[in-house]
TrEMBL record:
The chain crosses the membrane at residues 25-46, 52-74, 94-116, 136-156, 163-182, 194-212, 233-256, 276-297, 318-339, 345-366, 387-407. It is found in: Cell inner membrane. It holds the Pfam family Trp_Tyr_perm. GO terms for biological process: amino acid transmembrane transport. GO terms for cellular component: plasma membrane. The lineage of its organism: Bacteria, Pseudomonadati, Campylobacterota, Epsilonproteobacteria, Campylobacterales. Its main location: membrane. Keywords: Cell inner membrane, Cell membrane, Membrane, Transmembrane, Transmembrane helix, Transport. PANTHER family: OS07G0662800 PROTEIN, TRYPTOPHAN OR TYROSINE TRANSPORTER PROTEIN. This is Amino acid permease.
Length: 417
């Protein structure tokens, strides 16, 4: 893009466009990948510390397949709906008024928990890299994160595309470098501890990592000019996410061993590779947090706007006020040390997401086929919409959630006796 065109686009973003911004295919894929590759992907290796790599791999496969299916359900429902509705709006239209509040609680829980963890992790990383106080590091991260979020969908998509490309390059360098280290031990991958109270809760983290269901309607708005690109972007984006979710924990574990994996994996993984890798791995970590902040934060802003029936796309004053409610509370909670653990911040979003995202997409799809506004440019294959698949989704998500809650409160051993 030429300088003059870039300047005009920036001014248009500040003034607010008269219509929804269009996303390119790569921007849509990058939006999904960037949202998923945040603090979850940096913490998923740590979630396996007390269980092993094999249980993590199992849940990543199950979670990846089921989350992709539910995202495609939402995609079809969105393409059957004339208005650009977020998940809360789709829930009202196709399930009922009460569903609006249930879905919004799920959206808010996921977004707030995620933004808290991003602020906490960014402060930890900047402190480790530069010796900056954690609180100041969180504030420094907040400035570009909230700034791009304020500019809107097109700015987010463009930012995600640029940063995800850099992240992919860094990740390739780190993974290749790991396999050239003499200290790697593939035996670490077979280490496993048959502790159900450690194995089952991994699913909550996996659900959070695959929580991009919430941004499918946001992607659909950007693909309104070419709706058939939406399912393709979802499938490709989730495949890329799955590959990265496997490779990052695998690389860290074979090099460090389970016992040495840190809560934010780049802090220990990079150091184990070498001094130079420590710097670029933590740069990857900051980028990962930043892109996920934009994706989930943008989704939360739009959902609030839908709740209060305000236009946050074309009126940046309204968007700014909403942004204050979205971005400031997580920063303040971290700044005043009211949340000290990233794992705890992500636990409840995973639990809430598992319960809601297992049932609502099915109901939304079924009713959109009955009461949708228009013919869809694409619909889910019968292979993924039969009764058996839908029942599997509900059983897996609900059972894993119940057992995760039981494990957290030390009740799982009694249930499994």
């Amino acid at each position: 893009m030429k300088l003059k065109e870039a300047k005009q686009e920036f001014i248009a973003e500040l003034k607010g466009h008269p219509k929804t911004k269009q996303l390119t295919f790569l921007e849509g894929v990058a939006m999904l990948v960037g949202t998923n590759i945040g603090i979850g992907i940096l913490s998923v290796a740590y979630s396996a510390k007390a269980a092993g790599f094999v249980p993590l791999l199992f849940w990543l496969v199950i979670g990846g397949i089921l989350s992709t299916i539910t995202m495609l359900y939402i995609a079809e429902a969105t393409l059957r709906t004339k208005a650009h509705l977020q998940l809360t709006g789709l829930s009202v239209k196709y399930i009922g008024p009460i569903a609006k509040y249930i879905m919004f609680i799920s959206v808010a829980t996921t977004a707030i928990g995620a933004l808290i963890s991003y602020e906490k992790a960014s402060g930890d990383i900047l402190n480790t890299m530069f010796g900056i106080p954690n609180k100041l590091g969180s504030i420094l991260f907040f400035i570009p994160a909230a700034g791009v979020l304020w500019l809107g969908l097109k700015a987010i998509g463009r930012g995600e595309k640029q940063v995800v490309g850099i992240m992919f390059g860094i990740l390739c360098v780190l993974i290749i470098s790991t396999f050239f280290k003499a200290e790697i031990d593939f035996g670490h991958l077979s280490e496993m501890y048959w502790e159900w109270k450690a194995i089952i809760p991994i699913f909550s983290m996996v659900v959070f990592v695959y929580s991009a269901q919430y941004i499918v309607p946001e992607m659909a708005r950007g693909f309104a000019h070419k709706p058939q690109m939406l399912p393709k972007a979802i499938i490709l984006g989730n495949f890329i996410v799955f590959c990265m979710l496997i490779l990052i924990p695998l690389s860290a574990i074979i090099l460090e061993g389970l016992e040495n994996v840190s809560e934010v994996v780049t802090l220990s993984w990079g150091k184990a590779i070498g001094e130079w890798a420590f710097w670029i791995s933590n740069l990857f970590g900051l980028f990962a947090i930043l892109t996920s902040y934009w994706g989930l934060g943008g989704m939360f802003v739009t959902n609030i706007a839908d709740q209060i029936n305000k236009d946050a796309d074309n009126n940046l004053k309204v968007r700014f006020v909403i942004l204050l409610f979205v971005a400031l509370p997580p920063l303040l909670l971290v700044y005043f040390n009211l949340v000290t653990s990233i794992t705890d911040a992500l636990y409840y979003p995973g639990v809430a997401g598992a319960l809601i995202l297992s049932i609502f997409p099915i109901l939304i799809l079924n009713n959109s086929r009955k009461y949708g506004d228009m013919q869809t440019a694409w619909q889910c294959p019968k292979l993924i919409t039969n009764f058996g698949v839908k029942l599997t989704i509900v059983v897996v998500y609900v059972s894993a959630t119940i057992f995760s809650i039981a494990a957290k409160y030390n009740l799982l051993d009694k249930i499994l006796e």
